[in-house]
Amino acid sequence: MMVSEAVIRMMNTEDIENVLVVEENSFTVPWSRTAFYNELTNNNFAHYLVMEVEGQLIGYCGVWIVMDEAHITNIAIHSLHRGKKFGEALLLHSMQLAKLYGCKKMTLEVRVSNQVAQNLYTKLGFMPGGIRKMYYTDNLEDALVMWVNLDEQG
Ligand SMILES: CC(C)(COP(=O)(O)OP(=O)(O)OC[C@H]1O[C@@H](n2cnc3c(N)ncnc32)[C@H](O)[C@@H]1OP(=O)(O)O)[C@@H](O)C(=O)NCCC(=O)NCCS
């Protein structure tokens, strides 16, 4: 898929090194190489997308598809490339993928302090569902659970 000059495709194990650059740039507790490797090779529920601009990997998004429910595990765009609608395009693509797999709902957790990500999710139709107390182990921050009914999305 093309989004302006960006390409979105499925992640494979050869992408892990470049995904780790985005991961370490984006999260206080980045996932390890092993975590990504296990997701790609041992988890039949997991579907990971990467986004490339001019051949360079600039973002990724993971979704677990279990029966008719999709769960976003992570989404990140490298800080040098934020604010250009790449994250929005990547999440929309994940939503389309989930729909193709027959999912009716998509859900995710987001730090209560992460207003930027919450804005993106709200823009794409996600609604607040509840709070998971002390969900994040680094600072015991609460997670806001958000969800969207995929049937209502274009
Ligand atoms: C969240 C993230 C993926 C957004 O990606 P992005 O490509 O920068 O976002 P986009 O340019 O596609 O913006 C889409 C929408 O997100 C929101 N948004 C993006 N940047 C924002 C900012 N700086 N301030 C407020 N809202 C913002 C807006 O709603 C925006 O829509 P608009 O431009 O019409 O206002 C990116 O900021 C990121 O990687 N953050 C670090 C990792 C992270 O927090 N991931 C989410 C974990 S749950």
Give a written overview of the molecule.
A hairpin with a 2-residue loop joins strand 4 (56-66) and strand 5. It is built from four helices and eight strands; from the N terminus they run E-E-H-H-E-E-E-H-E-H-E-E. The chain is globular, with a radius of gyration of 15 Å. Helices cover 29% and strands 36% of the residues. With 154 residues, the chain is an alpha+beta fold. An eight-stranded mixed beta sheet has the order 1-2-3-4-5-6-8-7, with helices on both faces. The mean pLDDT is 96. The chain has helices spanning 16-26, 33-42, 86-100, 115-123, and strands spanning 2-3, 6-10, 46-53, 56-66, 69-77, 105-111, 127-132, 143-149. The chain binds coenzyme A. Coenzyme A binds next to strand 5, helix 3 and helix 4.
Describe what is shown at a glance.
The protein is an alpha+beta fold. Helix content is 29%, strand content 36%. It has an eight-stranded mixed sheet with strand order 1-2-3-4-5-6-8-7, with helices on both faces.
State the main characteristics.
154 residues; 29% helix; alpha+beta; 4 helices; binds coenzyme A
Write the layout of secondary structure elements.
Elements: E1 2-3, E2 6-10, H1 16-26, H2 33-42, E3 46-53, E4 56-66, E5 69-77, H3 86-100, E6 105-111, H4 115-123, E7 127-132, E8 143-149
Parallel strand pairs: 5-6
Antiparallel strand pairs: 1-2, 2-3, 3-4, 4-5, 6-8, 7-8
